[in-house]
Amino acid sequence: MKACRTALVALVALVGAGAAPMIQNSWAQDGKKAGPNPVGIGSNWSNSVTKDAQGGLELDKKQIELVQKINTYFRDLPDLRGNFVQTTSDNKRMRGKFYVKRPGKFRFDYAAPSKQVIISDGEFLRVQDYDLNNEEQWGIDQTPFRVLLRKDVDLIRDARILELQEVDDVVVIALQDKSPDTVGRIKLYLGKKAGLELREWVTTDAQGLDTRVELLDLAKVDDLDPGLFKPMPVGLKRGQ
Question: Which is nearest to 15 in space by CA: 140, 202, 115?
């Protein structure tokens, strides 16, 4: 099985960025380990910058105003829960539930038969596999979603805008972090019927393969359990 190479918060999930050394991603080691990866992390990101991604658009006044609205949406994102569907380039689908808690925590629980959880405590992002008793960990600043995870989201300041358009009731924005330490590209789709709302994102790996994550049944919540965002030792079974 091969790794799922891309795909937020994630998220949607808007985390306060932290800094930490990046731990080697075992997904990319000879393709031996497969696993879901909705937050788009993997060693292939280090090779994903192409010439067409080095510059970015020169935004006019109307486009700048649109990006500012996107900034405001992510800055003001409330605590959320919902469902997600992840589709890889070979049309394999995985489903699950996600949770987001300001100011910077999120969790993706994959539905059976998967035994994987992706969790951020606001400083570190962990991929936990309760089948293999394995955990991978990254500092939030090392992920391609850093520009969206900041408390003070400012895409004009921190990202190269590669694409920006409004198609019917959807805003599409593709971007790349300006930081040389945080390489990767992501395309976001936001509905705009009743104010902006993140619907899905697509990330592309170095081989040009896309992974799509769709967000469903979004609901604002006021009582998310803080324990959802505390990693559990992978030696324990989920639910213990």
Answer: 140
